[in-house]
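>> Question from a student workshop board

For tomorrow's exercise we were told to take the sequence and the ligand below, predict the bound structure, and bring the output to class. My setup keeps failing. Could a helper post the expected result so I can at least see what it should look like? The ligand is zinc ion.
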Amino acid sequence: MKAAVYHGARRFEVTEIPTPEPGPGQVLVRVNHSAICGTDVHAFMYDIAPAGSVIGHEIAGVIAAVGPGVERWQVGQRVVAGGGERPGGVTGLVDANPRYNYRTMGFAGGTNGGYAEYQLLADWRPTPIPDSVPDAAAALTEPCSVAVQAVRKSAVRLGDTVAVIGAGPIGLLTMQAARAAGAARVFVSEPAPARAEAARKLGAAAVVNPREEDPVARLVELSGGRGPDVIFDCAGIGATLNQAFDSTRPAGQVVLVAVPWEPLPLEPADWMAREVEFRTSFASDPVDWRIALDLIASGRISADALMSEASFIELEQIQEAFESLMQPSTQLQVVIRL
Ligand SMILES: [Zn+2]
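>> Workshop helper replied:
Here is what the output should look like for this input. Compare the format with yours to find the bug.
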């Protein structure tokens, strides 16, 4: 099969590798869409993906073969490559390690990823795609589940004012999830014009350009001088986390969704008197995948709004796609068609 093998030093090579065969309890998925995740771009940028590996985890596909003894799937069923409930006795990497550290252990869970024509999975892992959800939108179920978990673990209540910093795919999905959860107004801070425009189209009450105006002053002003109730940092770069703390209302909440790969400057003396609450949200659980698919199927979250015809590339274009995604860009979501 064709696969994009990561060779280290920011190099992918698209090459032929053996197509895996499903063993007992496994299924083989023919990948048709594989979305490029910001986390993978970081893995490339900071060269932390293991050399010789195939990464990629935002996948829609079709069951192509089932291993001996697999009864729950039939060849031809449409699936996303995740979201299944772990059987008893199988622990995930994070659950099995109370001191789990994403920076040092992030890829210990395996690198049989989706930037390839086929992916081998344990049979409990995939989730069926509802008929009403097209393949390309289904490929965004994983990032959508990350947004769903972030909102479900947040303090967002009906009628709240929310801010989202960073309108990349996770930010755009988080703003929609916050609205679906009852946020009355969502403000977005985003410098890239295409991403700001997408946020506006998806119903942002206002979009702040942090390169042209002070995002803290503006977010406080937009929320009546008090500050948003909950702020999601979906950028995790430079000053964004400090901006979130600085803008939130007294006893408001900051939720870190993005994974920062560099130390971030904080100035707590500026904001600690407001007794701000902080929490992180990492990845997602099966329940979040199911909710994500329901929200996409019902139209309350638009995955399509993150994609245009320009979003779709061939596997052979993966190197240039990753290189361009290292810089703040005009692309919203890049999706590999296989
Ligand atoms: Zn992802």
